[in-house]
């Protein structure tokens, strides 16, 4: 196993917008859904995603905050691409100041009234561990 730093992984993840967020359902099953970070991609071990309060992801997190994220970049002419699996803890934030800090205009198509849209919540995922695969190179970063 190779040993990449979080900064090296973050550089390779810079263009990844969509993550798969996995949560635990009420009966212990795993539920997955795509989430967009809306350009907030400076990865430091913490990710932010907007959702509606009534979404299953929110009720799952309220019950069990242990979550996983999956990221996959495209292989390009000069890169092999990277796959990253993150294990962490989710927190639900309902503070408009935090909404403003992570808001981008791309979110306007999902939330009609911006940060004042009724029923929105910010999901903050703090990573505990990240595992990566880039071609034959693979490893783990403890955070």
From TrEMBL:
Residues 6-136 form the General stress protein FMN-binding split barrel domain. Pfam families: Pyrid_ox_like. It comes from the Bacteria. InterPro entries: Split_barrel_FMN-bd (IPR012349), Stress-Dev_Protein (IPR052917), YdaG_split_barrel_FMN-bd (IPR038725). This is General stress protein FMN-binding split barrel domain-containing protein. It comes from Bradyrhizobium diazoefficiens.
């Amino acid at each position: 196993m190779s040993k990449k730093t979080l900064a090296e992984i973050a550089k390779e993840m810079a263009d990844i917008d969509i993550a798969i967020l996995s949560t635990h359902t009420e009966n212990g099953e795993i539920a997955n859904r795509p989430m967009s970070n809306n350009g907030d991609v400076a990865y430091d071990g913490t990710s932010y995603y907007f959702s509606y309060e009534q979404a299953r992801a929110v009720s799952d997190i309220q019950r069990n905050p242990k979550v996983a994220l999956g990221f996959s970049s495209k292989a390009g002419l000069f890169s092999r691409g990277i796959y990253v699996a993150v294990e962490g803890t989710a927190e639900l934030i309902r503070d408009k100041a935090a909404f403003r800090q992570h808001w981008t205009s791309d979110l306007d198509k999902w939330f009609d009234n911006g940060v004042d849209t009724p029923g929105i919540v910010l999901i903050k995922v703090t990573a505990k561990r990240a595992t990566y695969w880039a071609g034959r190179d693979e490893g783990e970063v403890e955070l």
